[in-house]
């Protein structure tokens, strides 16, 4: 553990009797003591100033002020002070990621990741940015099954109540309704009211109220965490800065996110190419891999995917922006190829995915989640 210089408060040394003939030596010793005390006072002043400046940085983090936090971290005098005091701010640099969620300028978010990577904090960020993944570009359902052991239907989003945990909940609701009817309790007015409210929720709120209620059911909540951790990890490894992970359906609705949760990431190359009216195959492949990573994560952990309907809708939307637009057959092949690449990437680094899920489950901030990913990537999987 790094320790700070001892604060001696300029305590006077024990008196030493010196013969009169040694007066010059005595003056030299006294002068040295004065200089030493001044040096200690200088360290104390520097440390106090550094503490005060770091408190200002923490205030910027608390207020989610990314621009202000970056200005502090970029200040050369801060680095020199940290070096002199034994890296007083070690570990606090990560906190700048917690200010990204409120940032309107995604270039500032990218700057935060680049700054931390330059300082050696994010060695895994963008590790697979330029990787050429092996395997055929034509991924048929047979190839997909031979590679993952799963049918194509297992890698497709399901409607609520069709399979998995949602079907169990639906069966429980129907069973409960049947019991009430058998006891002579008329629940039809209540069912009509519930269906009406659900319809209004779906039309005006995007189903966020029902999603909020469902999110309290532990199995359903964990599946959401697995899904979003898949998006987060693949985006991170592909070098796409992550703005934040939204797990509250109401907050997601307020931020304009379709669905019950969402991971916001940014691909600068893709945005620049879209502005120019073109999309390269590299940028398109990377975007599709991140987009289908949630479905791949669910399939990897549970053996099938339930969520991801909105991810597929976004995929179709961007396919229509291509010139010429992809045909249905081409879209299906691109979707299978993307989910296979994401599935393999998550499978190779499933220990990092588990670390991300656990951090999200504990309610950790983005900086802590990224830190847990880096710690897992630095260790061999058990």
TrEMBL record:
Picking any one GO biological process from the record gives: proteolysis
Q: Which Gene3D superfamilies match?
A: Peptidase M41
Q: List the GO molecular function terms.
A: ATP binding; ATP-dependent peptidase activity; metalloendopeptidase activity
- Protein's name according to its UniProt entry: ATP-dependent zinc metalloprotease
Q: Which organism is it from?
A: Buddleja alternifolia
């Amino acid at each position: 553990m790094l320790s700070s210089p001892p604060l001696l408060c300029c305590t006077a040394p024990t008196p030493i009797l010196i013969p009169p003939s040694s007066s010059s030596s005595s003056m030299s010793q006294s002068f040295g003591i004065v200089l030493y005390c001044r040096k200690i006072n200088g360290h104390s002043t520097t440390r106090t100033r550094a503490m005060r400046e770091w408190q200002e940085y923490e205030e910027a983090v608390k207020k989610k002020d990314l621009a202000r936090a970056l200005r502090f971290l970029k200040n050369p005098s801060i680095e020199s002070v940290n070096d002199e005091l034994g890296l007083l701010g070690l570990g606090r640099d990560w906190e700048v990621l917690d200010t990204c969620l409120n940032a309107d300028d995604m270039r500032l978010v990218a700057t935060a990741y680049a700054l931390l990577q330059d300082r050696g904090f994010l060695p895994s960020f963008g590790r697979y940015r330029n990787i050429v993944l092996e395997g055929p570009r034509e991924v048929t359902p047979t190839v997909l099954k031979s590679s993952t052991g799963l049918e194509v239907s297992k890698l497709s989003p399901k409607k609520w109540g069709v399979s998995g945990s949602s079907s169990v909940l639906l069966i429980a609701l129907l069973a409960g309704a049947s019991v009430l009817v058998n006891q002579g309790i008329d629940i039809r007015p209540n069912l009509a009211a519930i269906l009406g409210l659900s319809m209004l929720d779906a039309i005006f709120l995007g189903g966020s109220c029902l999603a909020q209620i469902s999110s309290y059911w532990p199995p359903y909540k964990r599946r959401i965490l697995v899904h979003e951790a898949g998006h987060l990890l693949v985006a991170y490894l592909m070098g796409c800065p992550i703005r934040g992970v939204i797990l509250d359906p109401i907050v997601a609705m307020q931020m304009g996110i379709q669905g019950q949760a969402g991971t916001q990431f940014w691909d600068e190359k893709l945005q620049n190419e879209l502005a120019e009216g073109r999309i390269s195959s590299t940028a398109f492949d990377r975007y599709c891999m991140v987009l289908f990573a949630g479905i791949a994560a669910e399939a990897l952990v549970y053996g099938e995917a339930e969520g991801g309907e909105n991810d597929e809708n976004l995929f179709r939307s961007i396919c229509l922006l291509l010139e010429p637009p992809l045909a249905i057959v081409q879209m299906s092949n691109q979707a299978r190829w993307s989910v296979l690449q994401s599935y393999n990437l998550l499978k190779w680094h499933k220990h990092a995915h588990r670390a991300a899920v656990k951090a999200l489950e504990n309610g950790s901030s983005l900086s802590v989640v990224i830190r847990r990913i880096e710690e897992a990537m630095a260790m061999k999987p058990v």
